[in-house]
C-alpha cells in the first residue's frame, strides 16, 4: 500500500561505511581517537519513495566495532526490515532485539531511520512521535580531551566566544598532575564555565578514591565514570564519599543496567546515549527510570556525525527527565566536515531542536559517497 500511509512497505535498505576526518587527537580514559572516526549510515526507502536515515556510531573500546554494526545491519536486521510496514516500529525493534545480541549502535541506527521515515511520511518531527516536545533548545557541552593543552586553549577561546557555557574535562588518560593543572586553569581563566569531569573508566581501583576526591575540591557539577563499567561496588563507594554528584556512563547501557545501578546505588545520575541504549525510546526509558528514583540525566554522545546528533536532540526534546543538557558538539567542533545537507543547528551555546518532518535535516548524499570506505 503506497501513498502517505504508514501501512506502506519498506522496500529499500542501503548502507554506507564512512571514515570521517577529525581535527585533533582526543584521549578518553580507555582509549583515543585520531585521524578519522568511523560511522555507518542507514537509508530506508518506502514504497512511495520517501526515505529515512539513521546513524550507527560505535567506538571499539566502548560499545563495539564498526564491522559488528555493519554485519548486524546488513546480515541480521535487513531481513526483518525489508517488506515490513513503516508504522510497525515497535514490532520491528522487538524482532531486532531477538535477531542479534548487543549491537546497540546498529539498533539505534535502525530505530532512528524508522522514526525519520515515519515522520517524513506523516509530515511531523521525530519528537512528535516520541511523546511531543518539552523544550525548544538544549544547553550544549563541549568536551576537552586533547592531550595538547595549547590546542585545547584555542578551542576554549573559540567555544566561549560562540556562547558555550558548559565544558567536560576528560581526565585519567595521563598523569594526575595534568588533570589538576587543567582544572586550575579552568577555574582561573574561565570562572563562569560549568565544568564537568569524566574519567571514562580510566582509573585503577587503588587510585580512584584519592584522584576523584582531589578533583572534587574544584567543585565540578559532576564527576563521571571513574572506574571500569563492571566495578559497581567501587562506584558505590566513590558515590558515598564524593562531595559532588557521581554519574554513570559505561556502567549503564540500557534499562537492564539502569535497574541494577539504581538498586546498588552506584551513581547520582546517568549519561543517556542512544548508541548505548539501542535506540531513542530505550534511552527515554533509562531517563525515566533515573528520574523516578531521584537521579539526574544528560544527553551524551559517541564519536558522532550530525545525523546521530539529530536523533539525540529529538530524544531529549521529548524527554523532560533529561535536564543536564547535551554533548552534541562533534559535528561543529571536531569533524573536519559534517555529513548533513545543512549545518547541525548549534549556535549560541545551545542546540535548537528541528521542527521539520522526521529528523528535520537529511544527509548530503555526495558527502556519503566521498567518505565511503
Topology:
Elements: E1 10-21, E2 26-28, E3 31-33, E4 36-46, E5 51-56, H1 66-81, H2 89-99, H3 104-122, H4 126-129, E6 137-139, E7 141-144, H5 149-161, E8 166-170, H6 176-189, E9 194-198, H7 205-216, E10 223-224, H8 232-241, E11 246-248, H9 255-264, E12 269-272, H10 274-277, H11 280-292, E13 296-299, H12 306-317, H13 330-333, E14 346-347, E15 350-352, H14 365-370
Parallel strand pairs: 7-8, 8-9, 9-10, 10-11, 11-12, 12-13
Antiparallel strand pairs: 1-4, 2-3, 4-5, 6-15, 14-15
Helix pairs in contact: 1-2, 1-3, 2-3, 9-11, 11-12
Description:
By secondary structure, this protein is an alpha/beta fold. The protein contains 14 helices and 15 strands. The protein has two domains: 10-123, Enolase-like, N-terminal domain (Enolase-like, domain 1); 129-365, TIM Barrel (Alpha-Beta Barrel). The strands form four sheets. It has a seven-stranded parallel beta sheet. A three-stranded antiparallel beta sheet has the order 1-4-5. It has a three-stranded antiparallel beta sheet with strand order 6-15-14, covered by helices on one side. Helix 1 crosses helix 3 and helix 11 (280-292) crosses helix 12 (306-317). The longest helix has 19 residues, at 104-122.
